[in-house]
Structure formats: C-alpha cells, structure tokens
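New to this. Explain the following:
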Amino acid sequence: MSRQAAVLPSGAVPGYDQAVLVTGPASVRHAPDEAVSAATALAVAVPADRQPRNTIVLDLSHLPDLPPGGRGQAPLFVLSPAGDGWQPYTLVSFTGTDALFIALDGPPAEGDPGDPRVVSAWVADLSARHRAHAARLNNHQRWFVNARPGLEIEQKFTLAGRPDIWLLAARTRDLVAAGAIDGWIPEHGSGGGFEQWDFPSHIYEIAAPEPERGYIAFIPAVDGSWGIRRKWFTADAVIRREQLTGGLDLGPDPDLRAVIRDRYGLAPSWGGCYRRVRYNVLLESLRSGHVFSIMFDRCADAAGLAPDLHQAEVEYIRSRVISGRPSDDLMDEFGQLCDWTRQLLDGYGVNAEQDNLSKLTWLRQAAQDRPPQQPLPARGQAAQTRHPRTPPCCGGTCR
C-alpha cells in the first residue's frame, strides 16, 4: 500500500508516526510575514518508514479545523519525527482536498509543537528555507528537476497480438491509486496521473558520422509549431542520449530533410512516418520524489508496410525534489517498476517480450524488407530518385 498520510486524532496508530501539520498565512512562503504568531499546529499521522521519505501527502478533507481556503489558514509545513527532532516538509502541490509536501533541506527542526513560541520559530525558519527555493517552489510545476539530464531511461515491452492498450492503462492507473505498488501514488496534481495522446511522428535515421548515429524525429503540434526529438544510439538500448526541442516555427510545409541539414549539418539515410496512440500512467515515488511513466502505445506505419506495433514502456520522466538531494535510488526504482510491469502483463495474459525495440528499428526494418516495386531502369537510362519534402503521413493533414 502507498499509505498516504492522514489527519487523525492524537495517539498511537499502528504503522504510523505522530507528526505535526503547521498552518498559517500563505504569504509567508513569498515574503517574511509578521503574522507568524497566527500559525497553528495540528496532530497528524504519517507512515512510519525506516528510510526518510521525500514526499508526504495529507488528506485534508477530514480536518474540520482547516476547511480549504478558510480563515486565511493555508497548510504550510509538515514535521515528521526524525531522531530527537523533526524532518520538515513544505507544501508544493494542493488540489483543494489534499496537499503534497516535499522534504526541505537543512537541519532537523527542534522543540515542542505544543509551545506556540516554538511553532512561530518553526514558521520563520522553514519559510526562509522555502523562499531559498522560491523560483521553483512558488511557481506551478517549476518544482521538477531532471536527475539524469540529456538521457532517456526506458524499458520497452513489445506486446503480441492486438491488446486493448486503453484497458491496460486504465487498470494500471487504478492499481497504482489503490496502493498496489508500495510507496507509489499517481503523480499528484496531474489529472489523476493519466494522459492520452494521438500524434504523427516523422522519423529520420542518422547513420553517419559515427558519433551522430541515431535518429531525428519531428512532431507537429496543434498550434502549428513543431517539436524535435533527437536520440543518439548505435543499437537499441535502455539508456540513450536524448534532446527535446519544442515550439519551433518551421513554416506551413517544411522540408524536414533540409531542416536536418541546416540545423545539424547532417544528411539522413532513411525516413518514414507513423501515427502513435498512447496512454500514459504517471507514478510518483513518495520515498524519492522521482516520477516515472508506464505507458501503453500503438504505432501504425503511415506507408502501410509494417504491422502495427504495440508496446508498454517504463520510463523515467522527472523528479519533484529540493535541488541537491541525492538520486542514487533512481535505477533501483526503475528496476522495481519494470519488474512490476512484467508481472502486470503476465497477470493479464499479455504475451510480452522485454526488449528495447525502438520505433526506428521497427519502421525501418519493414521498409528494408519490402520487395522492389519498380523495375530497374533500362541500360543507359538515368534513375530518377525522389526525396519527398515530408513523408506521406496522414494524407498531409498533420502539417
């Protein structure tokens, strides 16, 4: 079970530790406030773990003394027992009924929460610690960091047959929300941790020079701009170099090969296009703050050469942590989710190969295996080679 924290009466609760929720004026997160004396301390219970958690989620709906938005009181901090002191956590995400807090850096807080002077001192100290990271913590979704910048960490499972990817994704989200993976919740404040996507991707293989091998993919956005996803690799693998660029104005009908030439000084050796329907389940670790995705997708070759590709993918996305906190547990958690996904697919009778099959390998192999469709030119007749500006994807509607 994920065992979120709960607002409970004082006293021993099996599996939980007595903690403190500090409420007060929200303004103290933005600037020093003289009204720290208005802060109050309430008893709450948090899961008792051997290792300290990065994240605590409190359900506020059952707290009669703190109606959402009432009396100017905001949930400011949670203090969890840590040795002879208290590990402080600061509010980051608020949905109206529950609130997410992440661990603040600095020494443990000390003192008796029953003493109003101690509580006022806590608010002054912890507000200053919060404001040290104000640019990130006080701005919506700017609190995320990338623990492995420039890298993609992803395990693919290629699924046999034509599985119902919506059903698999929906069941996965429900299982995570029910606490099926200990210490994990659907990503807080992101629509229940569920996303759905449907978009074309124009993909170009870069075969030379050797250091640039991989692919460059272009994805059109609904506002007319384009995104570029570039990956470097010589063979399909779990970890690859990756660069994402968005919001590019390439014009209404871009010559994507020319964009690659002009932007990167490279010439693609092959290109294709496919449509991707994808459902993402976003999971957040309460122990580390890392966010991963378990996604299910179906890809269809726009040229009709390759059979539809169905895959499940476990991928590291981002981390909700105070800067400087260690992330050594990232690969351990990645392995945990890969094992759980493997068991999930087995449990639903889905035949899956745990591989690293990339979209490039799937699409390019089908094109290479296609038998010649045109006769060879007659002796002495020049072959006419045509390089389309953009692969014939979706009848041109994606441009």
Q: What stands out?
A: The helical segments are 116-131, 134-137, 165-177, 256-264, 330-347, 359-369. The chain has six helices and 18 strands. Confidence is low (pLDDT under 50) at residues 1-11, 372-392, 394-399.
